[in-house]
Design brief:
114 residues, mainly alpha, flat, 0% strand, 82% helix, 5 helices
Length: 114
Amino acid sequence: MVFLSGVVLGGFAHRLYTMNPVRANSPDEYRRRYIDQLRSRLNLTDDQTSKVDAVLSETRTRYRQFNAEHKDELRSIQEQQVNKIRSLLNSEQQTEYQKFREERKKRSTKPSGC
């Protein structure tokens, strides 16, 4: 039984290790690779590929619209989160937390390809 569970776990771990994640430096590159992987793994026809591309475009438009409509609400939720975390920290930790947030902000606003 122990041997069998080791084989199953080993097989699962090997599968996770060998999976090809979609990695990219830009949203357009990510999308291209994502579509390429779907085309390859699912043997999509050209028609199916163009329809998948259309679905992704529609989803991106809807997501951006939703995000724009709820931007203030999302910002408020994020500020509440930050304030709650700050309330848990001592003054030294708060200073480090502020540095941490600034570093993350710089990374998130860094232009693609840098």
